[in-house]
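Thread: Newbie trying to understand structure tokens

Hi all, I'm a second-year student working on a class project, and my supervisor (Dr. K.) asked me to get a predicted structure for one chain before our next meeting. I've only ever worked with sequences, so writing a 3D structure as a token string is new to me. If someone could post the tokens and maybe explain what I'm looking at, I'd be very grateful. Here's the chain:
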Amino acid sequence: MSHTSKVFSDAEEALFDLTDGVTLMSGGFGLCGIPENSILEIARLGKKNIHAISNNIGNSGRGLAILLKNGQISEATCSYVGGNPDLEEQMLSGKVQVNLVPQGTFSERIRAAGMGIRAFYTPTGAGTLVAEGKEVRQFDRPCLLEFPLKAEFAIIKAEKGDTYGNLWFKETARNFSPLMAMAAKTTVVEVEQLVELGDIPGEDVHVPGIFVHRIYQGSNYQNSIEIPVYADADQ
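---
Reply by user tm_fold:
Sure, no problem. This is what the structure looks like when written as tokens:
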């Protein structure tokens, strides 16, 4: 498929070359800032043996949990299983290999991939099960050697993006997405607002377009709330 512009018409066009066995990063914290359109397209494509790298692989049948329920994910690298009964069930039954990574280490491993850092030491996890099989070096305290996390594809969602791929995120919906955009061979972005180059002031750009390979205007967003919290009626 030949495409001279970064702008694609929809998720189907933007994910045309996704394959079985792909290593896939997906932005989002719980259900906040997840790439809904791309996830639904991957579900439609039915690609199998996906290694998903995401904070918690969806929640309660939503987000990446859609792919879990379809049996499309064979391996998951994440930092949080609680609140995701689909991942818990498949992990305990041996259907999915789960690599649990402390959340700070998870973020830094993704950042290291984007920055070209070949490895780093961290005290997080030293003396625990996390340390099993890892090199330990003594600094001011024991530290584990950790390696970068990279992917063939990253699917992320931004509130606003321009035709070159410069991105702006709304509040905490930014979460892991900027790091993942830098750590993948191909970064596919869906946006709620696709604008012209120059419409996002330079000082407001959260991810420079150089890290974005494909971008499209998303639609029909649910923007599900994971845990509703209601203000006291008397206040």
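A couple of things are worth pointing out once you decode it. The CA atoms of residues 61 and 209 lie 32 Å apart. The two ends are 57 Å apart (CA to CA). Feel free to ask follow-ups in this thread.
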